[in-house]
Amino acid sequence: ISFTFLGYAFRPRESKSGKTGNIFTSFQPAMSPVALKSKSRELRRWRIHRRTSMDLRELANWINPIVRGWMNYYGKFNRSEMYRLLERINTYLMRWARKKYKRLRTWKRFKAWWRGLTEREPELFAHWAWMRAYRWTG
C-alpha cells in the first residue's frame, strides 16, 4: 500500500523508536520517485558542465537557493531518499571543474583539487551540509 501526494511517497518504512531503540514498521513519507526523476531532469537541463564561463562562487550562488529549497521541502522526512539527487549534483560539479580547469584532466590532480576544495570550503554548496561523502576518500 502506497500513494503519492505533493511530491511525497507515503508507504511503509522501517523506523527506530527514539525511546527504546526498537525497529518497527510505520507509514512514513519520503521524496517520491516521480519527484526525484523530475528534479533530476531539471538538474540535467541546467547543463552545469557547460557553464565554464562562471566561476565556483557564481555557480554556488546560482545553484544554492534552488537546492536549498529542495532540501527544505523534501528533506523534512527521510532525507536519505534525496541523497542520490545530491550526489548527482556533485557529479555535475565535478564534470564542470574538469572542463573549466584543463589541468584537472588527470584523475590524480582532480581528486587532490576536489579534496582541497571540500576541506577549504565545506559550506560552499548547500547540499554538502547533508552529505558525508562529498569528499573523495580514495
Commentary on this structure:
The protein is 47% helix and 15% strand. The protein is an alpha+beta fold and 138 residues long. Strands 1-2-3 form a 3-stranded antiparallel β-sheet. A hairpin with a 6-residue loop joins strand 2 and strand 3. Helix 1 packs parallel to helix 3 (83-100). The longest helix is centred in the middle third of the chain and has 19 residues, at 56-74. It is elongated. It starts with a strand and ends in an 18-residue tail after the last helix. The relative contact order is 0.13.
Please describe the biggest sheet, giving its number of strands, its sense, and whether it closes into a barrel.
Answer: 3 strands, antiparallel
Helix share of residues?
A: 40-55%
Shape, per Cα inertia axes: elongated
Order of helices and strands: EEEHHHH
User: Which strands sit side by side, in order, in the main sheet?
Assistant: 1-2-3
Output the radius of gyration: 17 Å
Provide a count of the helices: 4
Task: Tell me the strand percentage band.
Answer: 15-25%
Number of strands: 3
Distance between the termini: 41 Å
Sheet/helix structural class: alpha+beta
Total domain count: 1
**Unreliable spans:** none
> Mean pLDDT, as a whole number?
90
